[in-house]
Amino acid sequence: MPQHFPPSTNAFVRWAILGGGAFVVALLVALPIFARTMNNAVGVPVAQPIDFAHNLHSAQLGIDCRYCHTTVEVAASANVPASETCMTCHSQVRVGSPQLEALWTSWENDQAVRWNRVHDMPDYVYFNHSAHITNGVGCSTCHGLVDQMDGIWKTEPMTMGWCMECHRAPERFLRPRSEVFNMAYRPPSDQLVLGSELVAAYHIDTDVLIQCSVCHR
Amino acid sequence: MTRRTHRDARWLVAVLALGLLLVGCGRNMAEQPKVGTLQPSPFFADGSGSRPLLEGTVSRERGGIDPVFFTGQDAGGLVTELPIELSYELLLRGQERYDIFCAMCHGYTGEGDGMIVRRGFPQPASFNEPRLLDASVGYYFSAMTNGFGRMYSYASRIPPEDRWAIAAYVKALQLSQNASIDDVPAEVRRALELGDSEGSLPR
Lengths: 217, 203
Prior knowledge:
The complex is a heterodimer of chains A (217) and B (203).
Chain A: H1 9-37, H2 54-60, H3 65-68, H4 83-90, H5 101-109, H6 129-133, H7 139-143, H8 160-168, H9 191-201, H10 206-209, H11 212-215
Helix pairs in contact in A: 4-5
Chain B: H1 3-22, H2 67-71, E1 73-74, E2 77-78, H3 88-101, H4 103-106, H5 115-118, H6 130-134, H7 137-146, H8 160-177, H9 186-193
Antiparallel strand pairs in B: 1-2
Helix pairs in contact in B: 3-8, 7-8
C-alpha cells in the first residue's frame, strides 16, 4: 500500500493535538467568564413612549402591582395595563399634562400604547408568572425594587443559568405567599429553615424543576 | 478520473458539510413566526396581536349562564342577596381585592378619602352615609360592573366572583364602621380588653 501522508504530517498532528487541547482549555475558562460578565442589559433603562414612573404610582400613591398587572396571579403573562386602566384616573387627574399626550392619543384612537419590552424570553423558553407567585417567589426576587424605579430596567440577567440557580435550590429564595407583593420584604436570618418548610408546604418537587422540559416544551 | 481530482472532491464535500453547520447559527428559534402575548401584529388594523372580545361575549367558566351572577339584577331589579355562598374566606378575599382596587379612592374605611382623591380625583360619597348604608349588594356589584358617573367600569379587570366578594366585604365594612362594643362576641371582647386585637380572630 502506498503512503498517503508525507512524514512531515507527524509534526503537524502533534501540534494540532497540542493546539486543540489548549483551545479547549481556553474555551472552558472563557465561556463561564463570558456568561458571568455578560449582563444582558441589566441596569440599562428602557425608553418608553410615556415616562411612566413606578416609584410615583407604587411607592408614593400606594397602588398595588395587581391594580395594573391584573393577570400576574392567574396567568403566564403578568399583563401590561391597557390605556383604560390609566384613564380610570387620568380622565380626571393631570388632564392636559404634556407627559400624558401619548396616552390620550391611544385612548381616542383605540390603539394600544406601544410600550417597549424590558424582559423578553426567547420564544423557545416557557415562563409562567402564576406558577411562581402562588409558590412564594416575590416580584422583587426577579425584578428588583421596581417600586423605587423612576423608569424601568432589568435587575437580573434572566439567563438560563440564573433561572437554574433558583430551580436547583428554591429554598434559598422562597417567602410566605402573603409576602410576594411586599417590595420591602427582607429574608429572615434562618432563610434556609423557612425555605425548606415552604418547599414542603407548597409541595414543590425540586427534582422536576431542573428538567429541561419544564422550560423548553 | 485521476487520484488528484478525487482528493479535491473529498475536500470540497468536507468544506460544504462544515458550512452546513453554520445554518444552525441563526436566532430564528428565538423569534418564531407566531404571535405571542402582548406582541404587535401588522395583520390587524389596530396593530395589536390580541383580539378584543366580541360584543356580548359571556364567560362559560362557571358552566351555566346565570344572569343574576353577571349583572346583579333579576326581574325585580338589583338583588339584595348574594348569588354565591357567603363565607369568612369570601370576606377575606373581598377585603384583599377592595384594598387593591378600591381603597386608593374610597379609602380603607369607605369614607372616600383615599390617596388618589387627595391628589385631585373627585371625591366619591362616603359608604357610611345613610343612602349607601341602605343600598343592596347588587347596587355595589352593579356600580363596579357598569361604572358609576366618573368612575370607570371594573368589568374587564375584576372577574365577577371577585366583584361579589368585594360587594359582600363593603357591606361588612359598613357594619364595622357603625358597630358598638355590644356587637362584638363575648370571647373576642375579652381578648380586645386584654389588648390582643388580632390573636382571637379566626385568621
